[in-house]
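[step 3/7] inverse_fold.run input=structure_tokens len=140
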């Protein structure tokens, strides 16, 4: 390998790594179906698919089958985006009924971890979060 080809390969690898780590959280969310807690066998079976509205103010979650959303059977759930940063999206579930001790509706933070997975934080969970959600890597 010549020094030039090594530099090109290094630049490509660096760009890919930077893209993966620094990617916009909305783009990262839409790049894959996601599955709960199955990092090494992350097939798409029962995976969740996230669709972000063009204005980035809403996110729709689908599983391909009916799901329960706060006691109501639905084909999808929708969230309203409250804000976002490099590695997170804050949002409220449109059908939310859960409240914090002060009586306010809770909101959610979808936070990307360095390994490519994400966890959910809830506004009244002080330091706690869900199990990781992983991108599916294998076909169903």
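[step 3/7] decode complete -> sequence:
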């Amino acid at each position: 390998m010549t020094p030039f080809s090594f530099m090109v390969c290094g630049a490509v690898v660096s760009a890919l790594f930077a893209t993966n780590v620094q990617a916009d959280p909305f783009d990262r969310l839409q790049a894959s179906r996601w599955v709960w807690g199955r990092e090494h066998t992350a097939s798409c079976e029962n995976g969740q698919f996230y669709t972000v509205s063009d204005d980035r103010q809403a996110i729709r979650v689908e599983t391909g089958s009916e799901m329960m959303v706060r006691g109501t059977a639905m084909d999808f759930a929708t969230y309203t985006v409250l804000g976002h940063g490099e590695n997170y999206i804050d949002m409220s579930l449109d059908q939310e009924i859960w409240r914090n001790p002060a009586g306010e509706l809770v909101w959610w933070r979808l936070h990307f971890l360095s390994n490519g997975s994400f966890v959910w934080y809830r506004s009244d969970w002080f330091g706690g979060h869900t199990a990781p959600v992983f991108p599916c890597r294998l076909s169903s």
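[step 4/7] annotate
Residues 1-21 have pLDDT under 50 and may be disordered.
The chain has one domain: 24-135.
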